[in-house]
Amino acid sequence: MNYVKVYVEHSALSLNQLFTYSCDKPVEPGCRVIVPFGPRELTGFVASVTDHPDTDRKILPVVRVVDETPLLNEELFELAGWLADQCCASVISVLKTMLPPAMRPASGKQKVVLEDWLYPGTPETDAALTRKQDTFLRSLTLPIQAAKARKQSVSMTRSLLEKGYLTLRQQPKDRDVVHIPEPDSPPELQPFQKQAIDRIQQSDAGMFLLHGVTGSGKTEVFLRLAQDALDQGRQVLFLVPEIGLTPMMTERVMARFQDQIAVYHSYLSPQEKYAQYQRVREGKVKIVVGTRSACFMPFSNLGLILMDEEHDASYKQDSMPRYHTRDVVLHRAAHHGCKAVLASATPSLESYARTLKHVYELVELPERIHKRMPEIQLVDMRTEAVTAGFSRKLLDAIQSRLEKQEQTILLLNRRGYLPVVRCADCQDVRICPDCGIALSYHKKENRLVCHSCERSFRYDPVCPACGSPHAAMVGMGTEKLEETLQQLFPQARIVRMDADSTRKKGAHKALLDEFGQGADILVGTQMVAKGLDFPNVTLVGVLQADNALIRTDYRAAETAYEMLEQASGRSGRGKRPGEVLIQTFDPAHYVLQAVKNHDYQGFFRQEMQYRHLGNYPPYTYMAMVVFSHEKPEKAMDKAQQAAAMFRGQRVLGPVTISMRRQKHRVRLLIRDRDPARLCQAVWQMVHELDHGAVKLDVTMHPLRLED
Ligand code: ADP
Ligand code: ZN
Ligand code: ZN
What we know:
Elements: E1 2-8, E2 19-23, E3 32-37, E4 40-50, E5 60-61, E6 64-65, H1 74-87, H2 91-98, E7 114-120, H3 131-139, E8 144-145, H4 146-152, H5 154-162, E9 166-172, H6 191-202, E10 207-212, H7 218-231, E11 235-239, H8 247-257, E12 261-264, H9 270-281, E13 287-290, E14 302-307, H10 325-336, E15 339-344, H11 349-356, E16 361-365, E17 375-380, E18 386-387, E19 390-391, H12 392-404, E20 407-411, E21 420-423, E22 440-442, E23 447-449, E24 456-458, E25 471-474, H13 478-488, E26 494-497, H14 507-516, E27 521-524, E28 537-542, H15 546-549, H16 556-568, E29 579-584, H17 590-596, H18 600-614, E30 621-629, H19 632-645, E31 650-660, E32 663-672, H20 675-689, E33 695-700
Parallel strand pairs: 2-5, 10-15, 10-16, 11-13, 11-14, 12-13, 14-15, 17-29, 20-27, 20-28, 26-27, 28-29
Antiparallel strand pairs: 1-2, 1-4, 3-4, 3-6, 7-8, 7-9, 18-19, 21-25, 22-23, 23-24, 30-32, 30-33, 31-32
Helix pairs in contact: 1-2, 4-5, 6-7, 16-17, 17-18
The structure holds adenosine-5'-diphosphate (ADP) and zinc ion (ZN) (2 copies).
One zinc ion is lined by residues 423, 425-426, 428, 463, 465-466, 468.
C-alpha cells in the first residue's frame, strides 16, 4: 500500500497544507487524484509518495487516480512551492496557474478535442506480416494521424494494429494557431549591438539588464542570442508583455525562426493552449514566445530567457497568485543554469537599482539605429490657444503630417467618450453603485460604463437626482478624441485603439495592420505607447499628460515616465526625424523634463531620492492586504486586528478605499527592509485571520496600490 500527500483544490489559504491518503494504484508525484474531503470529493495534486504513513489521523483511500504520468516535472513542482510561499498564495492556486486550463486540477468541463495517432508498436515475435502489409507499413511515416492511414487502407491499418506493429495513441488536436510569415534575412549588426551581444555571451554573470533607448535595435540582439542558444541545442523562452499589444514582435521572431516556435498567450482557446503546452512538453519546439503565463512552460533544457519591456505592469498577475514573471524568470534561469536578459528603454526602478548593486549586469544600447532621437516639445497649455482640447501647435503639426503623407500617433490615456457625466443643474455625478466611482459615457453603445468593474448601465440624460434634462459634457476620452479629430480633419484616415476597440480576438492585429497600410492617424490609450515600430510615424502627440502625474500612488511618476518616454519612442524610428508634442499645464515637472531630455539617469536619481525619503520600494519591501466585506465595520475590524499583529514591520493604515462589487474595502500596507521577514510575518497573520466572512487579498510587492 502507498501513501500519498496531496494538495487539495480549495481556495482557503488556511488549507494550504498536505493531507495524507492511501492509494493501492500506481501513482507518482505530480499526478492528479480524486480524494474524499469532508462530505465532498475534491481534486488534489500528489506532492509525494511513501510506503509508510507519518500521521496518527485516520487515513482515507484515494477515490481515483486521474493521470498516468505526472503533469508537472520536478522543477515545476518545486517552483510552485517556492512561488506560493513568496506570493503568500496557496500551492494549489499556483499549480492551477501553471497549467493550461484543460489540465487544471478540477477541469472536468474543459473539453479537449483528441485525435487518433499511430505510433510504431511492439509486435509479438510470431506475428508475421504479409508482403503487402510489410510494404504498407514501410510506406507510413510514423507517427501519423490514424485517419490518414485509414484513408489509404482501413483493413491494412486494422491488421497492423491487431498484430501490434502499430499502436494507437490519442493526442490533442494540434490546431494551427499561428500563421508563419516570410523568412527574413538578418541585417548586419551595428557596433553597439555587436558589443552588447559579446558582453552578454562572454560575461560570467547570469542576469542582465539590457537598457537600450527606443529604436536601438534590441530585437536584433534578442534574435542573435536566441540563435546562439539554439545552435547549442537548447531552448529559448521569449517573454513579451501583452501579446495583443505586440503582434509585431511575435511576427519578427517567427520571421527568423519559422515553425520552431510555440506561441502562448491569453487569447488562445483552451484547446490551443493545451496543444501548444504539449508541443513544448514533448520537446517539439525550440522557442516559446509568450506572455506572462508562458514563464511556466515545461522546458527540459532551457538555454536562454529573454524578457522584453521588463518594466511592464502586465508581468504581474493581479489575481491569486499575485506573482511577478521576473521572479519566476530568475528562479528558472538559476535552475537551468542559463542566462536571463531583461530589457527595456525605461527599466523599472527595482531592476536599475539592482544593476548598481551588481545583482544584474548592465548592458547598454545608447543610440538609435538611425542615430537621431525624436525632438520633444512640452506644449504649455496655460499660454496656448486651445481648440477642442488641441493646442494650435499640435493641430499645425498634424496638418503638416497629412500634407507630407507621414503618420501621427495621438495618446490620450482615457477610454470612452466622456470620463464623467454631471448634471448641469444639481451637479450630481453618475456613479457605479458597486464601486462608488464615476461612470464614463460611451457614445457608440449609448451606455454608462464603470472602468473598474466593467458593469454598464443604459444612459438616460435625465438626472436621476433632480430630473433635469441637462447633462454637462466634461472632459474627453479616446472615443470623443476620434470624433473631434475627424471633424477637424475630415479627409484623414483615423484608427482608434483602446480596450473597447480591441475586445475581439485578432482586433489588435487588424487595427495595427490598418494603420500600417496607410492610415494617417492612430489614436489610443497607453496601448499605442508600447512596442510599435512604424518607420513612417514622425509625430507623436500626448493629450492631458498631467493626468498621469497627479495620481496619488507612489509609483505614479515612474508609470508616467514610462508611458511618455515609450510613447515618444514611437516617433522618428525610420530615416526621417521624429517630433513629439506633449500638452501639459506643468512643463517644469521633473518627469516631463526627464522625458524631454531623454534623461533616464536623471529621472532615476530624482525619483530614487523621493523613494528614499518616503521609505518606499526599492528602499524597502512592501505587502498590501485588502479586507473586504458587505459591512464596512467588519472589514475595518479585521484590518485593525491584523495591523496589531505586526511587530517588526511598519504598518500604514488601515484606510478605507473604494468599494468593489458591493463590498466595502479596507487597505493595509506593511513594510520591511527584509523581504523574507516580511513574507513570514504576512503568512503568520494570514494563518491566524484568514477564516470567517471577511475576505483577505494579499499582494506581495504590489505594483499598484488599490485606492
Ligand atoms: P527597440 O526594440 O530597441 O525599440 P527595434 O528592435 O524595434 O528597437 O529596432 C528598431 C528598428 O531598427 C527596427 O525597424 C529594426 O528592424 C531596425 N534595425 C535593428 N537592427 C538593425 C541593424 N543592425 N541594421 C538595420 N536596421 C536595424
Ligand atoms: Zn440633477
Ligand atoms: Zn463598478
